[in-house]
Amino acid sequence: MTEDLRIARVRAYAVAPAGAPPTRYHGRMEPERMNAEIVRLTLANGAEGAASSLSGWSGREAGSVVRRIEALAGEALGADAATRSASTEALLAGADAGPWEGLSIVDCAMWDAYARAVGQPLWRLLGGYRERIPAYASTEAYLAIEDYLDATKRFVALGYPAVKFHMNTDPDFDLELVRVVTQAYGDGKVRFMTDQEQLQDFDEAVRLGEAMSRGPFDWLEAPLPDTDLDAYVELNGAVGVDVLPAGNTLVGLENWRIGLERKAWSRLRFDACNAGGITTAIKAIGLARAMEVPVEIQSFGFGPAQQANLHVMLGMAGCTWFEHPAPSAPFDYPVRNPPALDAHGCVAAAGGPGLGVEIDWEDVEANAVCRFDSAG
Question: Could you tell me the domains of the chain?
Fold first, then answer.
């Protein structure tokens, strides 16, 4: 089945899944509904690959990624999945500053299709470092301390060994939340992280980071705009908890190299589905290894995006946690076999070659609000 690995057809869809309710990711926003932007590549030999990214946040309307894929389709058609990295590098060379959702998920889908064509799980092709990885529950933002505590109890009862809060982003509220969580979980058996969505000022970030350093917290994520490297350098040296960027606005190997060399961040963070695909993720993990920092890959997204990032984490050394949207069911779409937490608080890749995902294409076709098909 490997005789012709050229891309013969490109399809893309934007779907607002009925099971994914409007959600708040920081306390200053109104709840928003996320859309799944999905690409489906078919190779000349019949092998298929898929990947996805998000729209619906920060003014990104449904179909925004579909339209980018439509613009890329002329270059993607005929590209050889056997030399997928070279194809992606050519696309990146002509791209503006990222993030690059369209070409990133095309790259991830090429890797999926190639691995399916050769009959191997993608994580094994990437090195087969491990079969499972610990997962943390990545929550929505709440407007009351009790809601955070109730959610934590539910997710810990499900077996998650760690919880990441999308924070309220009111400084006094967030400091009180850190104090209460430290009091309740100070033994460190459950680990915590926070995500401020780039909405704090420097003094607020210092106060929060200092408070977190006295509790069961592993990192302070996205307190400042990713582009403010000077402030990140100062913050990272001022607090006793690891400092991470958001990972989805400042992307690319050169930006990451500069940030790590300047010690702006304690760990590297990115999402393969908007930062250059699996092709770039491989290089990013090599960069982090050279800089001797861990990698925390962003995997908050719908089913195919979760799996693409998960396979990178399993295939290569350097990654610490899998970010699992919690509750997970709204973000399983359109995958029939999503990752499930095991008795040890870990997740494994779906079985089978490639990403191993079983996608409900009938539902995608029926409910797409925007679509593109290179076949006309």
Answer: 7-119+360-373 (3.30.390.10), 124-348 (3.20.20.120)
